[in-house]
Amino acid sequence: MPTTEYDTGTPETGPFALPLLPLQSGVVLPQMVVTLALESSEARDAADAALDADGRLVLVPRTGEGSFAAIGTIARIESDGELPNGQRAVVLRGLARARVGGPAVTEHAGVWVEVDPVAETAETSGRARELAREYKAIVRGIAQRLGSPRIADALQGVDDPGALADMSGWSPDLSLTRKIELLETIDPEARIDLALTWARETLAELEVGEQIRSRVTDGMEKTQREFMLRQQLDAIRKELGDGADDGDAVAEYRERLAALTVPDDVREAATREIDRLERMSEQSPEHSWIRTWLDTVLELPWGTRSEDQLDVQEARVILDADHTGLGDVKDRIVEFLAVRKLRAERGMDVSRGDPATASVAERQRGAGAILALVGPPGVGKTSLGESVARALGREFVRVALGGVHDEAELRGHRRTYVGARPGRVVRALTEAGTMNPVVLLDEVDKLGNDWRGDPSSALLEVLDPAQNHTFRDHYLEVDLDLSDVVFLATANVLDTIPGPLLDRLEIIRLDGYTEDEKVTIGRDHLLARQFERNGLVADDVVVTDAALRRVVVDYTREAGVRGLERELGKLLRKTAARLVSTDGSATPIVIDADDVVAALGRPKFFAEVADRTGVPGVVTGLAVTGAGGDVLFVEANTMDGEGLTLTGQLGDVMKESAQIALSYVQAHAEALGVDPAATRRRFHVHVPAGAIPKDGPSAGITMTTALVSVLTGRPVKAGFAMTGEVTLQGRVLPIGGVKQKVLAAQRAGVHTVVLPQRNGPDLDDVPEAVRDVMTFHLVDDVRDVLELVLDPSPERAEEGADVAA
Prior knowledge:
The protein has 28 helices and 26 strands. By secondary structure, it is α/β, with parallel strands linked by helices. A five-stranded mixed β-barrel has the order 2-4-6-7-8.
């Protein structure tokens, strides 16, 4: 901008030029005398320029990076010297406010700016004088609370409201922003009003602080008084011998801690809490929290471990004694024990050393697999966990996870919550009494997930060998070593288990029992248990194998044996009533096949496959549910009109299978021996038991067969069932659950099963006794299925053609 040369004389009014000294921090108000260290070359040049002239300069506070206040203070240098540290400094006296303009050109060195002194009002209003009196009174109150009466004395001789307000700039409680605001306030009345407002805030803060200090002091005195009274009460109790005091409880906790073999971090945490308990009043709410926490920590079986019994032969004997069948499952459990035995004998077991110092790879190699027993209800998953514990010689604890939807159930609650307690994993160790039990996580597929957290995510750390040696419960807040715990999991289905959790599990499938295995289980296991529950002994009743088989075939159709046990219980209760009515004179009572109906009523199940599939359009399919394998019937019919109707509460995938089946039939009508015009009619596909949801692609070939059967009038041959996915080209794709489906077919009286070609290797999982009595056909094209299962009877085909027409 253009500059104008100004005179450097000393006029009292009008613009003139003065050296500029920017203030990096702080504000100098009129009438203030300050010592200013000249730290920068800019400041030294301004002081030199002022001393070369008349000793005056303008002080402008800095408001930001490269910005300054609009109002500055004209000051005079009273003296020039050095500080004790040798740095140059000047003593300045503030004279008046001035507006700062642009740069000015003078004959002197330094930076000169245009300044215009601000003339304050000569007359003082009545309100300004009233504000000044109130300001002095408040400052006296501040001085009394701070114990500095000289602050109030310094104001006694000042009557001008503007000068009185400027004196507030000495206050260390004012921020730089407020001091700049005070400097830029020209009107004396407005200035004293600002200073009064800030003084009121300071006085209020001092009063609040004084009240807080008073309350704290009173509380400390009360606490000290209670402490002295409690010490006297303890002394009186000791003299009277009136029970144990809190000091005895603290000593007891210290003794219990000293007797345990606990990790160093746990010992430090427990010692810290015992020290807090010793210092704390019994009336404090934290007193009971600390005692509960100490009881929980000290009740854990630190350092207590069961000695493993790794006799593989004995383990096999125990498994065979506890369970009939399940050969593959028993083999896997024996392998699990054999691996642990070899690692223990060869010194490769990390858990015998310090897991905390082992590498991640070492911990993963040493922990073994986390076995998950997956199968329908009643097949013995939980009892297998108990057998594993017996075989290992370890304690067994079952953790029921069905319906758990709160993460705190597994990881514990924070100690600050009312009713807080440790998680289920910690409580399992306390129940077992050892740090290496067998823990069965029952029903992991039924874990919930809502706003309270995801319990399955908490299990990720528990079941990960690389992390569970430092498992931290939210309630305990200390590291817990779970690396030597044998975790087993059970589930009915895998679909609802989250992927990351499923990735940590080795799946062992229990697909159910054959008819012969159920008879054996009933004879060797269930009857003995029901004898005891119904007050009978072996000499009272004899149940023949024929009676057992009758119960299995006509009254139960399940993968497991829970229903079988219920029916046997009912049978024995009827027998117990007969025994009591005859006074036990006619013993033993023999129950044969003919006596079952009289005791249990009419049969609940019968072989309905032949009756249901005796007409065209009805086909027997196979499915897998949460309760195991099952048979389902697919019915198809045709009528006038167009379109496809699906009923039976089918899922989206199953609806798509029906649409694919119809499209295939329409596209290959002539090759299938079907009138193409007949395929353009309206079709209705129904799967009975409509109250049960059904889904999945494995009914594809079943639906295709049902449509071709109703169009050709050729019924399905008796005793056939099928499963497989179909494509638009008629390819038969593999499906899952072959073993469960085959066992369900056998229970339903089916003797021939059609399976996809690529499912052939899965038949190795089917028990040999079932393979010997059933016939299996492996196909890879749906036309092979139709040729195999449809009745070729010409008479019936003609009848079907008439129906289709």
